[in-house]
Amino acid sequence: MENINQELDPLFNPRSVAVIGATKNWNKWGxxxxxxxxxGFKGNVYPINRNEKKVLGYVAYKKIGDVPEDVDLxxxxxxxxxxxxxxxxxxxxxxxxxxxxxxxxxxTGAEGRELEDRVVEAARKGGIRFVGPNCMGMWSASSxxxxxxxxxxxxxxxxxxxxxxxxxGAAVVMAAINRGTGFHxxxxxxxxADIQIEDYIEYxxxxxxxxxxxxxxxxxxxxxxxxxxxSKATIKKPVIAxxxxxxxxxxxxxLSHSGAIAGVDDLYDExxxxxxxxxxxxxxxxxxxxxxxxxxPLPPGRNVAIIxxxxxxxxxxxxxxxxxxxxVIDLPEETISAFNEIFPPRWSHGNxxxxxxxxxxxxxxxxxxMVLKLNEIDALIFMGFGSISGITNVIAGDDxxxxxxxxxSLTSLEGVDDVVHRIIEAIDxxxxxxxxxxxxxxxxxxxxxxxxxxxxxxxxxxxxxxxDITRSMLKKIVSDVPDLLMRGASAMIGxxxxxxxxVSSLLFTLMKVYGKxxxxxxxxxxxxxxxxxxxxxxxxxxxxxxxxKLVEYREYLExxxxxxxxxxxxxxxxxxxxxxx
Amino acid sequence: MENINQELDPLFNPRSVAVIGATKNWNKWGxxxxxxxxxGFKGNVYPINRNEKKVLGYVAYKKIGDVPEDVDLxxxxxxxxxxxxxxxxxxxxxxxxxxxxxxxxxxTGAEGRELEDRVVEAARKGGIRFVGPNCMGMWSASSxxxxxxxxxxxxxxxxxxxxxxxxxGAAVVMAAINRGTGFHxxxxxxxxADIQIEDYIEYxxxxxxxxxxxxxxxxxxxxxxxxxxxSKATIKKPVIAxxxxxxxxxxxxxLSHSGAIAGVDDLYDExxxxxxxxxxxxxxxxxxxxxxxxxxPLPPGRNVAIIxxxxxxxxxxxxxxxxxxxxVIDLPEETISAFNEIFPPRWSHGNxxxxxxxxxxxxxxxxxxMVLKLNEIDALIFMGFGSISGITNVIAGDDxxxxxxxxxSLTSLEGVDDVVHRIIEAIDxxxxxxxxxxxxxxxxxxxxxxxxxxxxxxxxxxxxxxxDITRSMLKKIVSDVPDLLMRGASAMIGxxxxxxxxVSSLLFTLMKVYGKxxxxxxxxxxxxxxxxxxxxxxxxxxxxxxxxKLVEYREYLExxxxxxxxxxxxxxxxxxxxxxx
Lengths: 581, 581
Description:
48% helix, 5-stranded parallel sheet, alpha/beta, homodimer
């Protein structure tokens, strides 16, 4: 077999495409598939149809042999029984790759399997590699090729995904796009009569545009080959798999769905462990774990600190962590003392760190570094304060309840523009001491507005000023101040939104500096977003699960001596810090 | 002890309220608590503050004894150490109930416990029952009393909830309201120094406005008393509990949070089983199960049919069902034959029922009754087709891709108004035969538009016409036809939205007739809504979990000989069918 790139490139980067079965009859898959190809692909597209002369304005050809130019890729949306013959015609035409969307092969029984064998034979003879049959198709970002049975939303991104279920695939693709990330390749691989799941994974592993590989597997044709090929992929990047089939009813359903043999689940579990594949338990978890790898560094161990804005969520989070083999360890005496300085006497005095309804909110943002700098802490779960503005919105409903008119002392402040200008100049000059001396007189006013202690706030500002990224966020907030004062108390939401970005940049900085993950959560199961990874995981349970997968992967890499840098797979740390500034 | 209603009524239905610690200083909980009380409660409200003369426009009193009128309920937002003395003053004043939001009692150690004992003593002497301490407060729908530490969103509804965690409580309340349901009572019960969790549950069980009871428990003070009281509640309505504490780290966190002893998890599990309490594993699941009880009848057994719009989701759903002790049983031969009539040859020929990409969508809606009418099937999971319009929106993005211009034969149809008028008259007259004879000539046109088979559609229409609710939905769709034709092809989305309501009404009818649950899901983890329960559960896993809890509760009721009617707790079937029509 040739190099995998040469083999599969014509599939993902074809110069021209024929849709066999394209039709103007909108009640057929040949209609929506052709429409889907036309949406993005910029190369030549040829509809093949025995009866129609034109399809959606394109000249149609009776046979692929009639197409006057070369065709790299053929997409089949015709009845199964006609495919062997047309595949032979494709071979004659010099087609290099194919996608067979049509069903009616091995999943239907012995006759179907024989039909499938004839398709494979025709393709092999012509040197054609193909996706499917019995699949929904594929999407390739590099050519914007949507060889798919209906117009699926697309968004380019760092994920590659091969799914043996079309609906599971489509749902994960849509959910990923809703979370602000996207795909470099997505394949609904169907019955894998020719190209195997491990072939796609091998191909994705070679591609520098792919940062994380997802797969949904119903059954493998050759477990040994899978382990061999995928072991080479997992030392390059994370591979996350969803594989049902633990129960008899499920194995039965798999046979009639993809025609695959589900196999003994324990053997799969063993194979995945051997190959370093991370296992997910649901389509939702598959995506959660992918997002986690894209947004977090790999932690050095299993010891977790929890900082929580709500005691009961600290309780639940501790439970989920321990249930996922993470350790909620005791904090050293000096850290307890340090927290005594910034929290009220009623704080939890341990891990989870719970300030117990403290209104000195700024103290929460001092806490992450106080635990992350400890050698014995490998990761942080930061609950309920990753996004202040969102929480305020949810709780308040009517903002005016919280944001009473500003005190006259503030709205009538003269010379604000001048002070702001001088602070910005000081920040730009890099003179931190001067910046602090200009900001410090204002701290008590702002602290009183936010209900915070001025001393804590001064320390917080020093922390913010000490690093480039957070300093530039502070500059942005400062320059907005005159406008915010003009707009009165309702502008507080705007200030809090700016503050959210400051928090995000602080958390990113800490992740980068310490090479340890910070999994943030809110308390509500709202749609999380990749941007402002500050609340990438909505629930304590999800936070614990994804964190345990980061640990598992790092332990695997260290075991096979392939660990390099905790930040290697963290797409956001490596690529997208810009959006914060 | 008196009757529980007499004991707790002054708490949930007070005539007047004093907020001890109310303040105009917006950085204190006394500010936001007072604001919260003012939002809804219509009785007299008195701020008590030693230093302020007025609070938010209300005359403030130095002591509760200074209030010129009777005070039924006192809300404490003052430092813990002052509470024993003020509680004595409340007793002298004749206050009947209290909510102690303040923390700093047993959760802080021995001194705190002693302080708590003094509060209890003062309250007992004065006959005052109280919530807390160390809690967020409570909400009562009957008096719109928001005795809560910040303005929480409220919505009246059939749920009662007592939570030993304020943040878990607030998050579940907000999530429930987002799902379109609401609360009759919500209590953040804190350290339960006086009123115990089982007291609240006993009180809620007596209240006919409450259909389902939720609780989050960190630790019980008296397990035997809990079992005794709650056993009496669970024969009246479902009680669903979230109780962490399986792990040591969690038990440790509980001690410093609520001061409760987490106890041995196995004992709790046994106690819950004995008392018929349904156990949830997360705050999200607590609400999922509640919504399920409110929207579904109790199934007669564990045998499930799955109908799926996507084979891979059928596979996953079968796995989740079996993992939750539900049986995905084989279908009888005559049902397989019946499906052979309406599905293409490639359909799955078994359970899960997967038509494998059939475009004859109407057939999916024939399928539910074909399985529900079987004695051996106890429940249905209906995947991916509970909401057609939503799915179309998600997939298409740009509607115009799917909805090409209507054929001229349709837009130029003369006499449409007349035909529509005659159909409506026939429906109103109850003459089903005549209605069918008027509709049948139009069926081939509509079927071709939807890509469906005309014969299946005729059968579907007969099914719809045979029942009052679905018939009136069809009437609504028919009367919209002229307008839809005027608006052209883009109006197809409108037709599909109407069709969704028709499907919902069909599913509700089947649930009512057969007394078996139909759990619908979409394939995306989007926010589910209670209205159009057609997609109440977004994932296959959640569908299986909640269904298993319905079975568990019915089995309990039958074991203790308290089972009456499968539809008894199904709030939607009993109360809200109107919204569909």
